[in-house]
Design a protein that fits this description.
With 363 residues, the protein is α+β, with helices and mostly antiparallel strands. The chain contains 15 helices and 6 strands. It is 47% helix and 6% strand. A hairpin with a 5-residue loop joins strand 1 and strand 2 (169-172).
Length: 363
């Protein structure tokens, strides 16, 4: 997903969940900040780089391709952008290396999502926003994995967009590798990463081989991933993004329950709260545009009657930098960093536990 959903749509969901305008802004900011909080930024403000929730292209290019380098990449992208749907998943075939990666495929409504939501309960708006980013991405990034893997994440010529209309019309997606070439939804041309036969190349991280196409809410497509025995898989983003939105509303309502009084459950969606604006949301999701910020912003402002400022990556940095060392955890950025460290630790621990279980079975 992109700025339009992570920032403006998250604001809308938070408002429908009962948060104040000010809290909605904090939640929405943190949801988008997950895509911005790199080691480079954290070093600039004097924070611990271990709290990074994303990696810049230059950081990825400079990353070591050894075990530790791949582990660092996987910890970030698995925890915050490609949350595994089932760490116990086993394809029942292939070698140990492949089977170990297979369990990292992203899907919504997994046990890790439940832990992610419960982990931020009572931790403030910044932690809630971080969790909403992760929740939303489980829908946008499903079927891809947050680790470099050719066998998991590669795409090939059999990649077709399902065009809107009364009858199903397929159009083969044309991918190119020019980073300055804009995506063209009218012609079906999108930019993706270059093919690399090396299983662990960063070109094979996440949905890089499908470019930004999986992030567009209007996208409907079919493709045949190698991990699925080349069986055709269909993805319907308008439907999935609506589910993501309704699940965010449910999750944020649930998180307002005091400790011990609420428990987040998977596969729960607050369609009732969304019903008054469902048609407007559906229209935004279906609209063939690369940037839906204006539409989501207009909806959010119509809901709250308040102005939503544009996202500013530097908004909370001065507060953090000017605070005394002992008080930095009390700032908005400090609370975000604490939430990020807790999430990264939890997911890394769960992944390690599942790996140990597999090794015991192997022995």
């Amino acid at each position: 997903m992109q700025l339009d959903f992570h920032y403006y749509a998250t604001y809308c969901a938070a408002f429908l969940a009962g948060f104040s305008h000010e809290s909605c802004l904090d939640i929405a900011y943190s949801a988008q900040f997950v895509d911005c909080c790199s080691k480079t930024l954290l070093k600039k403000v004097g924070a611990q780089p271990e709290a990074a929730t994303t990696q810049l292209q230059l950081e990825l290019m400079d990353a070591d391709g050894d075990f530790l380098g791949l582990l660092d990449i996987t910890r970030i992208w698995t925890a915050f952008h490609f949350l595994p749907g089932d760490l116990s998943a086993d394809p029942g075939r292939g070698g140990w290396y492949y089977r170990n990666k297979y369990r990292l495929i992203c899907n919504p409504n997994g046990e890790l999502l439940k832990e992610t939501i419960e982990l931020v309960r009572g931790k403030g708006n910044e932690a809630t926003g971080l969790a909403m980013h992760i929740l939303a991405d489980t829908w946008a990034h499903r079927y891809f994995a947050g680790t470099p893997s050719l066998v998991i994440n590669n795409t090939n010529y059999h990649f077709y967009e399902i065009l809107p209309g009364e009858k199903e019309e397929l159009r083969q997606v044309v991918f190119n590798h020019n980073p300055i070439s804009p995506d063209d939804p009218e012609k079906g041309i999108y930019t993706n990463s270059m093919y690399q036969g090396n299983e662990n190349s960063i070109m094979n991280l996440g949905h890089g081989r499908a470019g930004h196409f999986p992030d567009y809410s209007f996208a409907r497509y079919k493709y045949m991933p190698a991990w699925g025995d080349y069986r055709e898989i269909q993805k319907d983003n308008p439907s999935d993004y609506m589910q993501a939105f309704c699940q965010m509303v449910y999750a944020m309502k649930n998180l307002q329950s005091p400790d011990g009084e609420g428990s987040f459950e998977t596969e729960q969606y607050d369609h009732k709260a969304v019903a008054p604006v469902r048609e407007q949301i559906q229209s935004i999701l279906e609209k063939r545009q690369l940037d839906a910020c204006a539409d989501w912003k207009a909806l959010g402002e119509s809901l709250s009657g308040r102005q939503i400022p544009d996202f500013d990556i530097d908004a909370y940095q001065k507060e953090y930098q000017s605070a005394d060392e002992a008080d930095r955890n009390k700032t908005g950025l400090g609370r975000f960093i604490n939430a990020a460290l807790a999430q990264k630790s939890m997911v890394s621990e769960r992944v390690m536990e599942s790996s140990l279980k597999r090794r015991r079975k192997k022995v």
